[in-house]
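User: Sequence recovery, please. Input:
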């Protein structure tokens, strides 16, 4: 399993397992991880955790002293996974509606 930075979008990363893409995420210049997605048939197989670990390590290696995750407030499955990985709620980003 490896994380590959896309050529056309330097802020976007793709998680691949062997020859197939299983997910992707984005890393903002601020060190915020967002747009985390694992494709439907690959969910609940540990790829989300692996993607977050690799994205977090990438952010730290780029010099970010801390890492944030942006997730929609209604995405309970993702919020639970992020919490279980050690991320903590600090507030909503942008508008609350």
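Assistant: Recovered sequence (97 residues):
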């Amino acid at each position: 399993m490896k994380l590959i930075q896309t050529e056309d979008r330097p802020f976007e990363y793709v998680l691949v397992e062997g020859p197939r893409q299983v997910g992707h995420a984005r890393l903002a210049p601020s060190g915020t991880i967002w747009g985390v997605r694992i494709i439907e048939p690959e969910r609940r197989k540990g790829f989300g955790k692996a993607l977050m670990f690799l994205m977090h390590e990438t952010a730290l290696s780029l010099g970010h002293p801390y890492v944030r995750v942006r997730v929609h407030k209604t995405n309970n499955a993702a919020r639970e996974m992020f919490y279980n990985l050690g991320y903590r709620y600090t507030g909503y980003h942008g508008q609350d509606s």
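Strands lie at 2-5, 12-17, 20-27, 32-38, 68-69.
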